[in-house]
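cache lookup: miss for this entity combination. No prior model stored, computing from scratch. Input as submitted by user K.M.:
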Amino acid sequence: MRELFQRAGVLGAIVALLGVVVAGLVFGSGQPPDRAYELEQRLRCPVCKSVSIAESMSDTAVAMRATVSEQVDAGRSDQEIVAYFTARYGDWILLDPPAGGDTLLLWLIPLGVAAVAGVVVLTRRRPADEQGQLDDADRQRVTEAVAGMRATAEEEDRL
Amino acid sequence: MTVILAAAGWSGAALGAVSSLVLAVLGLRAQRRPESVDRGHLKAAVQCVVGGAVLSMAALEVALLTDDFGITYVAENHSRATNVLYSITGAWSALEGSIVLWALILAGYTAVVLRQVRTTDDRLGTGALAVMGVVGVFFFGLVATVANPFGLEAVPPTDGAGGNPLLQDHVMVAFHPPMLYLGYVGFTVPFAFAMSALLLRQGGVDWLRRTRRANLVAWTSLTAGLVLGAWWSYEVLGWGGYWAWDPVENAALIPWLVATAFIHSAVVQIKRGMLQAWNFVLVLATFSLTILGTFLTRSSVVVSVHSFSQSPIGPALLGFFVLVLVVGFTLFALRGERIASMSRPESLVSREGAFLVNNLLLSLFAFVVLLGTVYPILVEAIVGSQVSVGRPFFDRMAVPLSFALLLAMGAGPFMPYRRATGALLWNRLRIPLLAGSTAAAAVVVAGVRSVGVVAVVLLAVTIAAAAVRQFVVTLPSATPRAALHLLRGQRAYWGGQLAHLGVAVVALAIAVSGGLATRASENLDLGGSLEFDGYSVTFDKTEEHREADRLITDAHLVFRTGDRVDYVATPRLTAFDNQPQAIGAPSVWNRPSGDIYVALSNLEPDSVAVNVYEYPLMSWLWAGGVLMAAGGLWALGGRRRRPAETTSTVSGPVGADGHA
C-alpha cells in the first residue's frame, strides 16, 4: 500500500513539474528575437566557403550586414529583405533553400523516405502465428515453458 | 638525394600496389581451396604491403624535413621557414600526401587482420585479406599514379610555396587528420569480412564477432576525430562556431552516423539473430560513404562542378565508389537472401525494437545530410542553376531527428529483449523522469524560455539518471570492487551507457551554448570600451610579433569588473608571407560557466571591429566527446570472450547486458 502511494507520488510530482515547465514556456515572456541577426544567418556570404554573412569577417559580409540592419530599421518585412537579396544574387544567396522551384525535391525526398520507412517498420512486424510445424502436444509444452520463463523474467525485471 | 628519395617513395607505393594485388589473388585462392596456399605467402604479401607503405611515408617525411624542393609535393606544400612540427604534418596537409597516409593506415589494418588469420583453413579470414588487398591495390595505385607526390621538378625552386596557412596555425593538425583517417580506413575491415562472408555464402555472426574490435577502434577514432575537428574549428576559425554543416564536415559525419547505426544493429544480430541482411547493407554503406566522402572533399567537386576535371583523383575515387557499390550490392543481392535470416522483432516496444528505430533514425539522418550535401552539385549538374543548402536546412532536419534519437536512447537500453510492458518501463524510468522533469522545471524557473533548451535538459538529465539508476540497481553490493566487477563484466553494455552519457552531455552543450548564447558586435577605437555580460571590455593596444614565415598582429581587449582586470583577450590576425589573405584567430576564455569568445572582424592600428560571444556550457561539448570516445574504448577493452562463453552468459541480472 505504501509503495502504491509512493508511486502515485512520483507520478504526481512528474506531472506537476512538467506543468511548471509548460506553463513557464507558454506564459513566460522571452527576449524579443534579434531580427537582423536571424536574417543574417539565412544569407550566404558570397565570397566565403559555405558560411552565412553573420559568421563571416569578409568586407562583403560586413557591407551586407549593414544593409540588413538598415532595412530592418526601416521597417521592411523579412520577406522583403530576403527578396531584395535574391533579386541581386539569385536563390544561391539563400542558405535556407525554399520549398519550391529547384529545391522543392530537397524537402520532399526526406519526407517521402521517412514516410516509407515508418510504414515498413509498422506494417512488416513479425506475424504472431509464425510458430512453425509443431504438433499440439509440443506446442503445449513450449507454451508452458515460455510462460514459466516469462514469470521468472518478470520477477527479475521488477528491480 | 632528390632522385633517390623520389624513387624510394614511388617504389614503396608500387611495391604496396603489387603486393596488395598478390594478396588479393592469394587470399581469394585460399578461400576457394585452403590447402593450395601457404599462410607464409599471405604473410609475406602483407609484410610487403606494410613495408611499401612505410617506405613511401618515410621518403615523404624525409623530403619534407630536408627541404628537398626537387620533389613537386615539397615544392608546392612546404617552405624553408616551415617549422619541424608543420613539416611533419605537411605529409598529410595536401591531397597526395593524405592518400599516402591512407595507404599506410590501410596497411596497418591489413597486418592486424593477418594476425587473426592463424591458418589458411580460416576461409572467412583469408577472404577478408583478399578484399583488403583489393582496396589496397586501389589506394597504393592512386599513390603510384594520379596522386603521386613524388614527381620531380625540372628546375627545383630555391624555396617552396608553403602549405595552406590554416593547416599551419594549430597543433591540432597533428592529431585531427590521422584520427579521422584511423576511423575512415578502419571501416575497411568490417567491409572486408562482410564481403568475404558473402563470397563464402556463410551467414551467421562470425564476421560480426571478428570485426567487433576493428569496428570499435574505427568508431572511437572517428568520434574523437570529429570532436577534435569541431574543437579545432572553434579555436581557430573565428566565425564563432564549431560546426558549419560544411560539406567537408558532413563528409565525416555521414559515415559516422551509419557506423553508429551499424554498431547498434550488430548487437541485435549477435543477441537475437535479427537484422542480418540489414547489417550487410550498413557495412557496405559505411565503407562506400567513406569513399564518397573522400571524393566530395578531395576532388573540389563541392566548390563547383566545373573544377571537376582539374584533379584526376576525383574521377578515380568516384569510379571506385561506384565499383564498390555495384560489386557490393550485386554480391549482396545474389547471396544475401540465402544466408541472412529475415526474422523481425515481434514488438517495437522491446530492446531490439528500439535498436531498429535507432537504426532507421540514424540512417535517415545520414541520408538527409548526404542529400543536403550533394543536392547543390546535382542541381548544378542537371539543371544548371546554382542553389545553396546551408545551416537552416540541416538544423531543421537534424533537430527533430536528434530529439527522436534521444527518446530512443532514453528508453531503449532499459527495455528487455522480445517485449517490454508499460508497467516495466514505468518502473525503470519513473525516477529518471522525476530527475529530468525537476531539472527542466528548475531551468524554466531560472528564466530559460527556449523550448529546445528545456526539452534537451529534460531528455538529457533523464537519460543520464536512467543510466545511473540502472547501474545502482544492478550493483550487487555498494563497494567499489563490486562496481568495477560489474563494469568489467559487461563492458559492451556499460561502455555503451558511457557513450550515451556522452551523447546526452553533448546534446545539452549544443542546445545550451546555441540557445542561450549572447553576442555583441562593435567597432572600437583605441581606448574605447563596451559592456558585455557584466564586464567592461576595453581595446587597449595592438602588438605585432614577427615569426619566420608570418606576421602576427594581436589586439588586446581587457575584460574588467570594477577596477580588477579579469582577462586580457588577444584575438589575432596572421599574415603569411606567401599568402595574400590574412587569417584571423579568436581568443577563447574558458570559464566553468561558459566561454567568452572574442573574434576580430577587422583590425586597424587604432581601431578594431570585434565580435564578442558568450557560450554557456561550451566546454561540456568537449567533455561529452571525451565520454563518447571513452565509452568506445571501455567496450573495446578486456579479453575477448570465446564463443562458448558468450552462449552461456544468456543475460545479466536484469536482462540488460550488451553484446559479447
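stored under new cache key. The longest strand of chain B covers residues 535-547.
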